[in-house]
Amino acid sequence: MFFGAILMKNKYAIATGLNKKFLKEINLGSKFNNESMKVYMVDGEFVRDNYFTDYTLGGHDLVYGDFIPSKEIWLEDCEHPESYRFTLLHEVLERTLMQFWNLDYETAHDYTTKVEKKLRKLQYKYTNLFEKLNLNEFEIHPTN
Prior knowledge:
This protein is of the alpha+beta class.
């Protein structure tokens, strides 16, 4: 028990070295109890070195609750800027399925990955897709 407390204390100490940049807040609307989440850009290498070696592209509190605070989504700063909105959409949908439909991570992730792949293929066919999803203004540039 004492050892676990030390580990948690160390995690919080490590967090002070994390380069974490606030990007935007997303509100899911009244159908989802006006649930809102804060989106941050983070140093993916730091996350892998200090929290979880398999962390890739993005994550949220319902999967990485040991180190991502409640109602937060993190996006890794290494992606091409045009891909961020797909990763964000993936994380928001996955988290929503887990929270409001009580899906386990594997099921929510598999479903969300299929949706993300289709949207990536359709992005040029339906140019107003991100406008309708209010992600058109989602301009993100990696932290350097």
